[in-house]
Each structure stands twice: as C-alpha cells, then as structure tokens.
Amino acid sequence: MKKALALALLALLSSVANAEYRHVNMTVFGMDCAPCAHAIHVSMKGIKGVDTVNVDLNTGLVTISLVPGNTAGMHQFEEAVEKNGFTHKDTTVIVRGKLTGTATAPVLEVVGTSDHYSLTPSAQQPDLTALIGKLVEVNGLLPAAAKGKLPDLLRYKSITEAQ
Amino acid sequence: MKIILALACASALASPALAAGHGPVFGYATPVNSQGEFSFDTGLIGRHGSQGTALTESSQLGYGITPHITVTAVVPFTFGKASLPETRMAGGGEWSSSVAWRFQHSVTSVGRRIESTASLGLVVPGPQQDSGILASLHRAPGVAATLASGLASRSQYLWFGGGYTRFVEAHTDRRPDTISWSGIYGYRPPGLRRDVNHWDYRGFAELTGEHTGRVRSNGVLLPDSETTSLWLGPSILAILKDVAIEGGIQAPLYRDVSASSYGRESIRFAINFSYLKYSSHAY
Hints:
The complex is a heterodimer of chains A (163) and B (283). Chain A is α+β, with helices and mostly antiparallel strands and 163 residues long. Chain A has a single domain, classed as Alpha-Beta Plaits. Chain A is built from 3 helices and 8 strands, in the order αβαββαβββββ. Chain A has helices at 2-15, 34-45, 74-82; strands at residues 21-29, 50-56, 61-66, 87-101, 106-109, 116-121, 135-142, 153-161. In chain A, a hairpin with a 4-residue loop joins strand 4 and strand 5. Chain A is elongated. Mean pLDDT of chain A is 86; it is low at 7-16. The two termini of chain B are 17 Å apart. Chain B is globular, with a radius of gyration of 19 Å. The longest helix of chain B has 9 residues, at 2-10. Chain B has 283 residues and is mainly beta. The chains are: A alpha+beta (163), B mainly beta (283). Chain A binds chain B through residues 27-35, 37-39, 41-43, 45-48, 55-60, 75-76, 79-80, 82-87, and chain B through 21-22, 32, 34-37, 67-68, 102, 105, 107-113, 152-154, 157, 193-196, 198-200, 202, 239-242, 244, 276, 278-283.
C-alpha cells in the first residue's frame, strides 16, 4: 500500500511542469572542421541535463535537447562554445519558466537557474494578463549578447501556459 | 592563472612542426587546443639525401590552458645517418615544448575565422648525437619563436608563418641560427564538407623554406656551412571526430647548399597520427 502511494506521489510530481530549457538551438561561428564539431558535441554533452546534441558544420547550427527536470543555465551553453574558441550568435529556445512583471513588461524567470529575460513579442503583442504568475512555455529567440554576457531579452514567437 | 602562464612561459620550448590534428604537417598554422583539451601526436619525419637518410620519430603532448593558449612538449627519437643541414621544420633530435598564444581571433561567419598565433620557447639537446658536420659540435639550448597568421574555413585554408631559432654557444661551438617560413593553401572539396560522423578530408599544398646560418666549431665559422632551401609538396589530412592521420611529401624547389658539406637533400616526407581528448567539463 505504501509502495503504491509512493509511486502515485512520484507520478504526480513528475507530471508537474518544471521551469527549464527544453530545446536550445545555437548558431556558432568559426567551426571549420570535424574536430571543431566534435569538441562542441563533447562540451555540450558534459552539461548536466543535456540529452542529445547535433552539430551541423555547414550551417553552424548546434541543436540541443534537454531532459525534463534539468537545471542547465544559458551561461553553460555559451561557455561550452567559448572554451573551444568559437563565437555564439543568435539562439532559439523553447523554455519553461514563471511569468512575472506586468502584462506590458513581462519577465520570464527560468526557476532553478539564475536566468531571467525581458520578453518582447516578435510579432503582434498578445494580452498576457491571464498568464502573469503562471508557469509558461516560451518559444523564442535570444539575440547574441556581448562576449561573457547573457542576453537579457527574449523575443518570443509563442507563449502558452505550461501543461 | 598568471602564475600558471608564467610557469608555462618559463618552461616553454619551441616545438617542431607537428600537425596536432588540424593543420599542415610541415608548415606553420594557427590552430590551438580548446580549453582543457589534450592532444597527442606521434609522427615520423624523414629526410633523404645523397649522404644518407635521417628519420625522426616525434611525439608531442599539447594542452589548452585557455581557448587561446596551448602548451606543448615534444620528445623526438632520431635514427638513420645523414649529413644534412640544421632544420626546425623537418624533424631533429631536440627535446622541446612551446607555449602558443592565439592573440588575434576574428570569427567572421559560419565556418570561417581569421586568426594569428605566436609561440615562444626553448630548445634543448636530446640525448642522441647528430650526424654529419653537426655531430662534432658541443650542443646547448636555444630559444625559438614562431608566428603564423591566416584563414580557416569550410572550403579553404590559407596560412603564412615564420620562425626563428637561435642556439647558445657551448665550448666555442654553436649550432646555426635558423630562419624558417611557410605558406600553406588548403582545400576541402564540396562533396567532402560532411558532418561530424564522417571522415573529414582536406588537402594542402605546403611551401616551406629554411635558411640556416654558419656553423661555429672551435670558435671558427665553418665555410660553406650556410644553407638556404625551399620545399614544395602536397599533404592530406583525414580526421574522424577525435583522431587524425596526415601524410605529406616535399621536393626541393631551390637549394643553396654546399654539396660537399651536406650532400644533396632530395626529399622530405612525414606521417602523423593525432588523438584529441576534449574536455567535457561544464561550468
């Protein structure tokens, strides 16, 4: 009976939505050869929570998917690029976090990391009033920031309440 | 970090040309290791001339301290006997290591970068004796510096580089100063611009040159010991993820070398194996 309760509790907890990066697609400049791509692959796989990594040398696109419940931060992805001597440019993400701020100046807090972004729509501004204070899933673009700095703006294409 | 860098500089020795998995096999190039990356190279460099064949089996260990600073150590083993000029680009028996600093790094687009790398260090005599007119010299350490600059891209590579080595005098003997230079063009055909799971091939045309000064023996500068030569040849580099194999061959374009002192060097060849151990350390 206790075992069944524990399992039920575990199942309930696992179904609760987490704040986390789900997918990170970075454009990386400077990779010319297979060892470059392999170095990025190894570095990204070394980040706890990373599930799969794909590196396309011809487009410079590094596609990362992460496991549920991860606490990986954006600075880890950027440092993985920089330590190999390359430069990261724009990054598209699918990320879950708590929507704070106001409907006109929303902020996404990726709970479990220190990452937070001011949100701005890439197209028409939707009404976010109903989502403030809730866990949301955002699909958007992080413009490249200065070296060593994290972007503070997330241009979102879509924002929905996390299920 | 400053202390580590200072120690690295203090112990730095200049390395001969070894590919380290990214560049040409004879000439100078700009790539350095990633931060935390170990590179292991082992290769065979040969020189053949009218007065014999000299072979150098050279092993190199490199480590990336930062994304732009790499230290290397080289332990060679020589065999064969030949009377050939001093070289810093085609083997030799000196134990060495170097610190290389990629001081300029401009990443301009996907798959393309322009960069410059300098290295500085010392060269110390190995336990094996030279052959030819260098064999009778008392040997002493030297200092060496190199500079390379160029472009790396998915399709083409272009590097220019030069180096200078000067040895200390020992018991009124001194090995010749060496000035070396290289120009490298590399090309990867469109059909070979594949993903990381396939072998990555590229071909290089390697033009190298060396000028060695006069040999000082018993306080006397030996006549006809000064040399200048220019070499050209192809090399091919193949890489799969973290292993690389490279081979190349060169023939002389120009030789201003005393045949009585050194004979006629007619061919240089090299083969190199690399293993690159990347760091998965996450911050």
